[in-house]
Amino acid sequence: MRRSSLPAAVFNVAVARVAARRLALLCVSLGLAGTVLAQPATPDRGFNPEVFRDWVQMRVGSGTPVYWYAVGTVYSSPSGQPLMRMEGIDAARLDTTLSTPVKAHQLSRKTFVYRDVQSNAILREWQGKPLPPISYPYQYITYELRGSGVESWVEQGAGARVQRIGPGTDIMARRIGGTLAFSAPLFLDFPLRDGTRSQTFEHYDFFDQSAAKGLKHPYQISWLRFGDLPAGLGKGVMHMVSWRVDRFEDLPQSIRDYVQNEAALWRDPPRDMAEIRRLQQPAGP
């Protein structure tokens, strides 16, 4: 004979009633009787049309190329030992044919080399293991104003490895006196070719000090990364500071020499979306 499910149903109703009474007593004890627990509100990220315009102007300019120069150090963790230096550039431009007052299209590429802590010579290997530069032939990034926040998407890679990463919604804008600060945390978790996963944390702090008079470099970044280091060095920390210049000729000589001699593609940002779509195609045989 099939057993009736009625006893179980009655039991479930009884449990629910007991839970409801307990919740009511808890609300009374906390002074919450007669109120409804509110759902978490969407946080105010500090953006409005004016702040968004300032963000875009700082990050990518108004259509002509801009160059972010970066320099810093790679540390082992948890010892804190400096292992090598880093130096590089991010060359970017705003695609004015696609951008609107509420959505910006950034066309950019970046490359970074490792340098010896003492001699500043470019490191090509570490203890017999190759140490290639960090190089992105392109990155296509969009920023869209949505309420008090910004939604970002990033495209990178080629062929079957084209990635579209997003949406990123964590950029926070804050005013600190005459400085406009933008903080952007980034948590990454993606598979590698060897079957392992890359799990890293990065944090970008942008500082717009264009309201101050007499600053040579009013646009600045502090960047921090924790994760796997290259050449099998285990977990570690990378940190760089960066500032923007508006001409390739205004970059420090050391990075100009590297780009001109070994990385000519990074002399300028991508010209347009057609170039980016070409770079996304699979490499030839």
Q: Give the integer mean of the pLDDT values.
A: 87
Radius of gyration: 25 Å
Spell the H/E element sequence.
HHEEEEEEEEEEEEEHH
Give the strand order, joined by hyphens, for the main sheet.
Answer: 8-7-6-3-2-1-13-12-11-10-9
Tally of helical segments: 4
Q: Terminal Cα separation, in Å?
A: 70 Å
Overall shape = globular
The largest pleated sheet is described as: 11 strands, antiparallel
Oligomer: single chain
Our count of domains comes out at 2
Helix content: 10-25%
Structural class: alpha+beta
> How many β-strands, per DSSP?
13
Poorly predicted tracts of residues: 1-37
Strand proportion: 35-45%
Describe this structure in words.
- The protein has 4 helices and 13 strands.
- The protein has 285 residues and is an alpha+beta fold.
- The strands form 2 sheets. Strands 8-7-6-3-2-1-13-12-11-10-9 form an 11-stranded antiparallel β-sheet. The protein has a two-stranded antiparallel ribbon with strand order 4-5.
- The longest helix has 24 residues, at 6-29.
- It starts with 5 loop residues before the first helix and ends in a 6-residue tail after the last helix.
